[in-house]
Predict the 3D structure of the following.
Amino acid sequence: MRILPALAIASSLSSTAIPLAAEAAGCSSGWAGTIQYTRSQANSDAKTEQRVTGKGTETTNWSMTYDYVAQVSVRPAPGSDDSLGRANISATSVSTETKSAEDRYICPHERTPRAMSGSFVSKTQTRGSGAGLEADVYVGVDADGTYRVSVGLPDIQGTVSGSNSSSYSGQCTPKQGVNQSIADMPTTINGYSFTSSGEDRVLASAPDRLAGSHSVSAYGTTETLKWNLRRCAGDLRLVDVKFEDMRFPTWEAWQEIVEQRGTTDGNIVRITALVANDGPEEKSATIKFRETYKGDKWDGAKPDGLIEELTVNVPAGEQREVAFKWDSSGYAWYDDGRPRLIQRIRTELEDAGKKVDDKTYNLKVAPKPVILAHGLWSNWRAWEAWQNILTTSHSYDWKAFPVGEKPEHGRMSTGEHLGNTEPTNTIAQNAVELGQYVKYAQQSRNAWHVDLVAHSMGGLISRRYIHATMPTYPDGKPQVAHLVMLGTPNMGSRCADIISAPLETAGRSMDALRELRPNVVAQFNSVHTERKGVEFSILAGNPLPAVCYMFNENDGVVTVPSATWAITDTEQQSVLHVNMATAEVFSSFVKPRVAVGPAKQKPIELSALAAGAFSLDAAAQTDAFTPDFSKIVKLAPGQTLKVDIPVKQARDFGMTFIAGGAISATVNDDKGAVVGENLKGTPAAGQLFRSIYTERPVEQGTWTLSLRNDDQAEREVILSTWSRRD
């Protein structure tokens, strides 16, 4: 029962409402609209005292909360400039007191004291509500343009209930705790009166509209008054327009959108308009929701676009809601690729075809988060610059999520750094890690849809995730809107063939490398065909001639045919495999595919990759392949090592190897002439797979490979040779 005196004390904090005459500048009507009054109060106390025995303590904790909300519908009084109010009120208060006692006592027939304790909880709750109650409303405008808004609220009926509980431990004679409930008892919750500060001023441009708020805090109590009023504007009015999206991952878990946070591109937004009828008869209202460009720097002259039109019948003196669901896909961008930082939506209310009210709201729509999946011998740091790239391209609301940056949410294992041949995850295992990171990004940004950018092997991992576990949602759209692949070996890479072979022979098979072999990827392609409506795009690099027994244009790891296999949206650029996660590639290839405005959104197509669509060239790339010669060697710091290489008569000669950037390699023929070299500090030393190639006929013999390690640590070199024979 402790809450009731606190309510009485708190009520003295309210201002006294003073009736004020409404001043009409050419308008004699009373005001219409809404007023909201809220009151919140919170108090607590804690103390610890010694028990009478001096051998223990007693701790008391007390807390009280009180929440009071009144929504007042305001309408003009007939035949006067006064206003009438109808209030819906709810109030809840909770008072809880907890006592914990501890003592030490020697029980009979015992020699040592034992610890004894008791806990006692007393809780009182008051609840009350009322609907359609008469409330006093006063609005007064002074000669200098300042005005006051005041509301007087009636008492409401409520109930008081309570409970008591106790528990004990350690007593000489065990003592049973109790739980008691106090039945509901009727009570009256006092109403309040509150007045704004009087410092608000009427806008000269809108003398018949008042909107504002006033708040006062003292002694743990906060009172707030908010108002939105108008006069001389007909019977129908827009009370409010509310924007909501769904809180990921629960579909239909609607939450109001905070203007500062906004929503995320691709989310479904529920827009709800509340319409009031202040007239004496039922009215049919038309509500139009428009996309408006007014005030935009570039498109201010562009005409508004109609998003939705709804109708509703509103009985006299009542309010009705109308709502629809709006797909925000593309609204982070204009159709020409410019960032759209604010989406303006105007709600218009029409009475018999004439606009009588409107409200315009700014809705921030952030771009879909971009999940970044790295490839072989790499980690999340390959994308370290991309957050700055996205921020510069749109705003700080465009977020990059490199998989593995926060490993507790998912971490792919593909070799971590160049030349590492330790065990790795399989593509399937890495796809699980990718899926966990996608979910983390969605929760972080409250985004139902994401874009996925994948480099190299990351594209195969992404395809596995999409095929095997990616969810779709009730809106019919896939979780991943667009998969943008950069140099993905969609038919495998001969480089993996050449380097994986000696590892497998030595019993050191590395899954991430082995699964890039063309014959293994062919098996992968025969299974992983589902796209689930995800749009696929691929960039293929074409600056190099023959490497790794590949004689098509390639990027140093992947040929153009391997990258572009079975994908419609393809592009070629003169870019090396290791240089694809750059700002230049983002601007020229990635951004045009993810920064897509609403008019350019493509329909969802549930087509699959054609698993059997191999051309003759594609079939040739998946033939079984065995290197001419393979070897694994280790070099101490500063060591130079010579390796004999058996060479067969052939049309050409090539060698592919992986080694640290401080390793230099030179090949001499059996006459001592230099056939080719790949030296430290050169661009060739920075490639994922390093090569030496000569396109001339060679005779059978023994050539010499010279390797030098200029690093401070021991380094391993894995090499294979290859050639074409008639």
